[in-house]
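Ticket #4471: structure export looks truncated?
Reporter: QA, pipeline team
Priority: medium

Steps to reproduce: submit the single chain below to the structure queue and open the exported record.
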Amino acid sequence: MTDVPQAKAAATSSDIPSVLRLPIQYWKQSVAVIAVIVVVAGGYALFNLYQKSQDEKAEQALSKLVATTKGADLVTALTQMAASAPAGVRAAVNLELAKAAQDAGDFTKAASAWEAVAKEAPASMRVIARLGQAAVLSKAGQNDQAVAVLESLLTDAPKAFVMTVDRQLAVTAEAAGQWQKALDAYGRMKADGSLQNPGYIDARIAALRAKADAAATPKTNG
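Actual output as written to the record:
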C-alpha cells in the first residue's frame, strides 16, 4: 500500500507510514512448495498493484470533489467518502473533512474527523490531529472535553510538541474555568526556561491565582 498521499487537494499532506508487507522468510526445498510460493508471491504483487490503483483512484476522486464541491455538500460527500476510502488515503479524506466541516461551522463533525486522523497517525501527526480536535471542541463551546483531549495528549506527546500542547491547554482550561489546570500548564511552560515572553506568562499566572483564590473563598451574605 502507498503512504498517505501527497494530496492533490490543498492542506491534505500528512506523514502517515505505509502498512508493513509480510515477507516470505523460508520454505522447504520442494518443487510443489516452491510452486505454491511463486503463486502466493504473485498474488501479493497483484494485490499490491491493485491496492495502489485503488489509492490513486481515490486520490483523484478526492481532488475532484474538493475542487468542485463546497459547504455542507462537501462535508456530506467527504463523510461518505471517508467511510469507504482505502486505508492509504483515508487520513487525507478525514483531513479535508476536518477543514470543510470547520469552514462550514460544523465543529462537532470537524472534531470527529480530527479524532479519526489521530487514531491512525504516527506520534507527530497524532499530536497535530489532537490539537486540531481540541481547538474545534473549544470553538463548539465544549472546553471541558477539549481540556480532557489535551491532558491525554500530554502523556505521550514528543518533547518538541509539549510546549505547544501546554500553551493550548492553559488557554482552554482558563476558558473552561479550570483555574488550577491552567496554572499548572503555565507553570510547566515557565519551568521549561525557553519562553520568549515570560512577563506575559507571569501576568497570566497572577491573574489565574486571583481567580482561583476568589473561587475558593466562600461567599457570605452581608
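Status: closed, not a bug. The export was complete when the record was re-opened. Leaving a note from the reviewer for reference: Confidence is low (pLDDT under 50) at residues 1-50.
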